[in-house]
Design a protein that fits this description.
With 261 residues, this protein is an all-alpha fold. The chain has two domains: 7-77 and 90-105, no CATH class; 108-256, no CATH class. The radius of gyration is 25 Å and the shape is elongated. The longest helix has 31 residues, at 226-256. The chain has helices spanning 7-25, 41-46, 55-66, 92-105, 108-130, 143-172, 180-188, 191-218, 226-256, and strands at residues 135-136, 139-140. It has a two-stranded antiparallel ribbon. Helix 5 (108-130) packs antiparallel against helix 6 and helix 8 packs antiparallel against helix 9. Helices cover 66% and strands 2% of the residues. It has nine helices and two strands, in the order H-H-H-H-H-E-E-H-H-H-H.
Length: 261
């Protein structure tokens, strides 16, 4: 009803978070903040909720949806708050940020994986353009573009690794439900395979860097043609960094996968 919600809550905050909970978690909800709920006690206890603030209500929706619960909305009318004894407890920006933060913590896919894949994709495109020194219109893409592409690739790979670690930790601790796709991935991606992949990337990167050093030695350790040598050095240190990260990640994720007996 008129005056029941501030403008920013009715037309910005509530619609945005309700849309996110539908897109990210598949919850059939049009008003994620509605505080009038009906639920079975045993089911609510099984959700193992962790939040103590106002995001407790959104946590219930998210976890119920992730656990495949049947969720039904019944339209109600929100009336203006007639209480005058104290000011509203809701703080727009503080509680809005707490809700968004919880959404991200519950979705490693959107927090880490999607941004990571985008960064890796940009890194691949940048490398394919800059390595041969392509020119597109008036712009010539050289080693500086290759350096940016390398940074994008390393950051993206790190974000993907964080997505796997976060999801593994969350499911192991019961914060999020089990993920069959993640279980299948880790049955295939064993510690030994990770060590082999990481070691291979590391060694190839070291060989490329060694080739750059040999080239420098052939020049009498003098000045180098940087557009040429950097096309070896940048891919070399990128592979060394990725290989080293893979080695560390393989051990860490294996440790996180250990179950208490």
């Amino acid at each position: 009803m008129p005056g029941a919600m501030p403008f920013s809550h009715r037309w910005i905050g509530n619609p945005m978070f309700s849309l996110l909970v539908r897109l990210w978690f598949g919850a059939p909800i049009n008003d994620v903040y509605c505080g009038l709920r009906g639920f079975r006690k045993d089911f609510q206890q099984a959700l193992s909720q962790r939040c103590t603030g106002m995001e407790f209500a959104t946590e219930m929706i998210i976890k119920a949806s992730l656990h495949g619960a049947r969720i039904v909305e019944i339209p109600i009318t929100l009336h203006p708050d007639g209480r005058k004894s104290h000011a509203p407890h809701l703080k727009t920006f503080r509680d809005g940020w707490r809700t968004l933060r919880f959404f991200l913590l519950c979705s490693p896919k959107w927090l880490f994986l999607i941004p990571g894949l985008i960064l890796v994709g940009l890194g691949c495109v940048g490398t394919l353009i800059a390595l041969p020194g392509m020119r597109i219109g008036p712009a010539k893409f050289d080693v500086h573009t290759l350096l940016f592409a390398s940074l994008s690739f390393i950051l993206g790979y790190q974000a993907i690794v964080f997505a796997l670690m976060t999801k593994s930790f969350a499911t192991t601790e019961g914060f999020l439900p089990k993920d069959q796709a993640l279980d299948r991935f880790f049955r295939q991606a064993t510690l030994e395979k990770g060590l082999i992949l990481g070691g291979a990337l590391f060694m190839v990167g070291c060989l490329i860097l060694l080739g750059a050093i040999v080239h420098w030695e052939q020049k009498g350790f003098g000045s180098l043609d940087y557009p040429v040598t950097m096309r070896w050095v940048i891919p070399g240190f990128t592979l060394v960094a990725l290989g080293f990260q893979t080695l560390l990640f393989s051990f860490l994720i294996s440790m996180m996968g250990l179950r208490r007996k």
